[in-house]
Amino acid sequence: MKVLIIGSYGLVVGNLIARMHREKCDVYVLTGKRKVDKRKGMPRHIAFFFQEDSADLKYVIQGIMPDYLIFAGAWDENYEWEKEECASAFSSALVNILSWAKEYKIPKVCYLSCMDAATEQEARGKIVRDGERICETYAEPGFEITALRVPYVYGASLCAEDTLDLLSEQCFLARGGEDYRLPSITSELIYVTDLADAVFRVGKESLDQNPFSCYEVGGKERIDGSAFTSYIEKLYEKSAAKASGEIQLTDIHTSESSAFNEDFGYTPRIDVTTGLERIENFLSKNHKKIAQIRRNKRQEELQEKSQSVKAQIKQGMTIVIHIFENLLVFAVAFAAQYFLNGENSAFLHVDFLLLYIVLMALKRGVGESILAVLLAASANLWMALLEGGTVSSIMSQYQFVLQVLFYFVIAIGISYSFLLHRTRLKERMDQLRELEEEYTRIIDINRTNVEIKKAFEDRLINYGDSIGKIYNVVSELDVLEVDKVIMASLRVVSKIMSVKDVSIYYAGTDQYFHFVGATTKETGGLRTILLSEYKELEEALLEGDVFINHEIGGELPRMAAPIYSGNKLIYIIMLWHMEFEEINLYKKNLFLVLVKIITSSLEKGYQYEKVGRNQEYYEDTNIMLPDAFRNRIEEQLKGVPQEEAEYTLVCVAAEGRDRTQLNMELSGLLRDSDRIGYLKEGSDYIYILAHTNFDGAEFVVRKLTREGFRCKVVTKDEH
User: Fold this and answer.
1) What pTM, to 2 d.p., does this model score?
2) DSSP character string of 487-546
3) I want to staple 128 with a disulfide (CB 3.0 to 4.6 A). Which of 16, 117, 338, 698 is the partner?
4) β-pairing verdict for 144-150 and 46-48
5) CA distance 716 to 719
6) What angle do CA 330, 334, 339 make, to 5 degrees?
7) In which region does residue 32 sit, left (phi positive, over 0), alpha (psi from -120 to 50) or beta (all else)?
8) Any idea what the Cα angle at residue 118 is, between residues 117 and 122, rounded to 5°?
9) Residue 4, SS3 per DSSP
10) Among candidate residues 65, 67, 149, 61, the one with its CA nearest the CA of residue 108
């Protein structure tokens, strides 16, 4: 079942994710706000960081096509219920969710309500009750909506970064020796995992009922102040904390209906004692981290208050400075008007006060330009009074009134023009910002779709009928050289079987199986295995069957399968560190199919080697020609540190032996997987590409030395 949960990360949403994940559901979360740092302890899910009223919700629902949609509603921590704009934001988000869910025919929707909605208490109760009415309006046959009214929800969070509920906070305080508070009245409680169970049952059960239904979901028991005190004292016997004050829990209305229990087979399981013990277990693991988070939060709040005060002071100082600058410019303009206008004929028709008004309108906007008009008018009135006029006569002069009106029109006109320009510029910047946000959202949606696609592709690999996927992976085996087939087999088996640690053992002439390679350096197998020492493994492989190890620990792999060439066992493929639930009949059969495909590829490789042998080997010998041998060395040793190589180069002095003699003596001493060859035609030194690491090559050197050969291990740069 694909489940889309809409709501902020927190106590309720976190536990819903955990429950749905435990039920093997594909979980998607639209959180509204990006809080990546809180998700480290969460079960696997895919998150979308969009607001609930965003138009991008359409693409999320369209891309997922969930079977079940859960809206956290009353328990969504994105909403601040007491704010005036909360009601419209909540309704807008709910309508957006229901509209697109109905458009794409999502069969089931669960709306989490609260007990306060029944009596419409406080702002939260009224808003959530309106949400129930909206749900009832949208519901229709084929689009079922179930509203769950739940009492006060408490419990242990999954992440230390989540805000503690009121009861958990009292436990936190008591644990640290601080005074805690008690519930003000008797209240019914529901543990968060019981709520998650109720929500899961709504999505799982299919009832023949009305499209919209509203249920009251009860908790295990009720609690009052005295009972809570006894629980705290029992939990924290050594704590010096004392009960002090009261806390007001929401949703104090208790459930009187058992309809939900009867319809969905629901029974609350967690009592207060168990619930508080689980909270204490969570706090004991995360107490230091939570305390640090709370200290950081308090510091951030203090910094925000300090910054707010500083901002207000800065704003006030800015206004004062602007007024002072205005007065200073006015004083300069007035002095120029008073002293220059009558003294110098060049400035006779220059109105410095008008220039002052224009400058203020350009720089300061409407507010200070009005002040400039008033100051300029007052200056003209004062200069007219100095010339012998009276206030009444001056104010009644047509020329004076017209001049003041002219000042006012100029100030308002210029200020409005620049204000309009700034407004348009701001609108364009807002549009640009919206486009950038939309572009970012599209990138996020695309990135999430890629994650979803990859998850489904990985899952398809494990489906029994995913022949196309298996074929695409197995196509890596379409190579002719035997060594390349072996290395490709490691990748193919690892990917198809979903096992990181894969080993291939080569059957040597001395009945030992020598380690060839693995996908990781941590593979737990032995470097060399004598098959006769492991009877159960030997019996299964000699019968051509897959060996399965059900024991814990030991030296044996989880699975092993043989590869035959004719009637000869030539390779063993071993899988290590598999999960026990992965050891099943399907995996066994899939492994057998892969082994048969690898065997077929190896047969083609042997045929290719047989046909092309004359181009790589001296006739009637196992000694490779210089060019072919040099290419083989480069393939095996290129870019691999000597200490980690699975192939090592050993230099052997011929000392008068001819090619036929060297072939006969060395072939009897080496394994089939080792290669012998010259680097130069007619050289006095022959080289062995030993199928072992640097330490194992020392054993080869000692063995050859005992047979009378003078030899040493060399690096690829020394030959």
Assistant:
1) 0.53
2) HHHHHHHHHHHT-SEEEEEEE-TTSEEEEEEESSTT--S-SEEEGGG-HHHHHHHHTTPP
3) 117
4) unpaired
5) 6
6) 155
7) left
8) 45
9) strand
10) 67
Other C-beta atoms lying within 10 Å of the C-beta of residue 588: 16
Closest CA to 559 of 473, 489, 493: 493
Task: Report how far Cα 285 is from the mean position of its chain's Cα atoms.
Answer: 23
Strands 711-714 and 648-653: antiparallel
Backbone dihedral region of 178: left (phi > 0), alpha (psi from -120 to 50 degrees) or beta?
Answer: beta
For the chain, helix, strand, coil in percent to 5 are 55, 15, 30
Taking 70 as the pLDDT cut, the residues of the chain under it are: 33-41, 341-349, 438, 441-442, 444-483, 508-527, 552-554, 581, 605-614, 637-646, 672-673, 716-719
DSSP strand pairing (512-518 vs 501-507): antiparallel
DSSP string across 567-613? TEEEEEEEEES--GGG-SHHHHHHHHHHHHHHHHHHHHHHHHHHHTH
**What tokens were used for 84?**
């005036």
**What three-state secondary structure class fits 402?**
helix
Cα gap 164→613, rounded to integer Å: 74
- Helices (H) and strands (E) in the chain — how many of each? 22, 23
Packing angle between helix 482-497 and helix 467-474, nearest 10 degrees?
150
- Measured CA to CA in angstroms, residue 178 lies from 232, 618, 627, 694 at distances of 12, 88, 81, 64
Q: What is the dihedral of CA 305, 37, 194, 211, to 10 degrees?
A: 90
> Which residues, including other chains, have CB under 8 Å from residue 455's CB and lie 6 or more apart?
26, 46
SS3 367: helix
Cα angle 299, 30, 457; round to 5: 125
Q: Note whether 44 and 20 are within 8 A (CB).
A: no
Rounded Cα distance between 547 and 409, Å, is 97
Sign of the dihedral defined by the CA atoms of residues 294, 31, 151, 134, in that order = positive
Where is 689: in which H helix or E strand? strand 685-690
Which residue has 């995360």 as its token pair? 286
Amino acid identity, position 288: K
Question: What number of other Cβ atoms are within 10 A of residue 460's Cβ?
Answer: 13
**Would you state the pLDDT for residue 444?**
65
Angle between helices 398-461 and 57-64 (to 10 degrees): 10
Q: Residue 685 pairs with which residues in a beta bridge?
A: 653
CA distances 134 to 89, 95, 436, 609, Å, are 14, 7, 33, 75
Select from 473, 479, 516, 440 the least CA-distant residue to 690. Answer: 516
Model pLDDT for residues 276-299, shown as the tens digit of each residue: 999 998 888 888 888 888 888 888
Give burial (CB, 10 Å; 0-12/13-18/19+) of 470.
Answer: buried
What tokens were used for 403? 């001049």
Q: What is the biggest distance separating any 2 CA atoms in the chain, rounded to whole angstroms?
A: 137
Q: Classify burial at 280, counting beta carbons within 10 Å of its beta carbon; exposed 0-12, middle 13-18, buried 19 or more.
A: buried
pLDDT digits (tens, 9 = 90+) for 58-93: 888 887 889 999 999 999 888 888 888 899 999 999
**529 closest CA partner among 569, 565, 491, 496:** 569
- For residue 678, give both structure tokens: 């010259």
